[in-house]
Structure formats: C-alpha cells, structure tokens
Design goal:
The chain folds into 2 domains: 49 residues; 74 residues, OB fold (Dihydrolipoamide Acetyltransferase, E2P) (Beta Barrel), CATH 2.40.50. The protein is 37% helix and 41% strand. The chain has a 5-stranded antiparallel sheet with strand order 3-2-1-4-5, with helices on one face. The protein is elongated. The N and C termini lie far apart (61 Å). The mean pLDDT is 85. This is DUF3592 domain-containing protein. Keywords: Membrane, Transmembrane, Transmembrane helix.
C-alpha cells in the first residue's frame, strides 16, 4: 500500500513539474513574441517619422538569422545627418537579396534616425521590415 502511495506522489510531482515548466515556457515565448512585435513597431516608427540621413557602411557581417529568406546582417555605419553632424551606429537588420549589391563596405545608403545626443536609433531604408 505504501509503494502505491509513493508511486502516486511521484506521478503527481512529475505532473506538477511538467505543468509548471510548460507554463514557464509559454510565458517566455509570449514575452519574446510581444517584445519582437514592439521592436518591429519601433523600427516602423523610425522609418516613418525619423530624420533622413546618409550612412557609409564601415563594415558588414552576416548574422546567423534570416527572415522570410532575407539574410540578417550587422552593419557598422558612419551616419551623416542633414546638418552635417556625424555619428557611428551599429544596426542589425534583414536585407532583401535583390539589395545585397547596395550593401557592401564603403557604399552609401539611406537611413533614418530618431533620438538626440548619444542615444540615436537608426534604421536602414531599404531593409526588410514586416
């Protein structure tokens, strides 16, 4: 009789552990999806309302991610604002395959930025945003 009770307790612990881990996993996935959606909304806002600028690609590196067949890249940019001021920025984005020739080291690209001082968020105009 005690072995049956022990077996039931072990089974209950396993079920509770499984449900708890599943709930934690679902909450984390939901949080990441929400964060990703918020990030995309910010990116769209920068592209819609941001100040236009030109940027020279100092370095480009492919990331291990892709989105809908578009490769992820990390761009080190030297951005020149319309008033002539400059700043450095690093942008991780996705570019359509057709635009790859425009995204080479030394090429000038169109960007938009928001923010002031040392805190500026930059987005690439020809990048892929859902």
């Amino acid at each position: 009789m005690t072995s049956t009770l022990i077996t039931l307790i072990i089974a209950a612990v396993i079920v509770v552990f499984g449900l708890t881990t599943g709930l934690i996993l679902i909450l984390n996935v939901t949080k990441k999806l929400r964060t990703g959606k918020e990030t995309m909304e910010i990116r769209k806002e920068i592209l819609k309302y941001g100040s236009p600028a030109k940027a020279i690609i100092q370095d480009i590196a492919e990331t291990s991610s892709s989105m809908h067949g578009r490769p992820g890249v990390r761009l080190d940019l030297f951005v020149t604002q319309e008033d002539g001021q400059t700043f450095q920025s690093v942008v991780t984005t996705f570019i359509p395959v057709i635009h790859i020739p425009k995204f080479q080291k030394g090429c000038e690209i169109d960007v938009k930025y928001m923010g002031e001082g040392n805190v500026r968020k930059v987005e690439v105009e020809d990048a892929y945003v859902i």
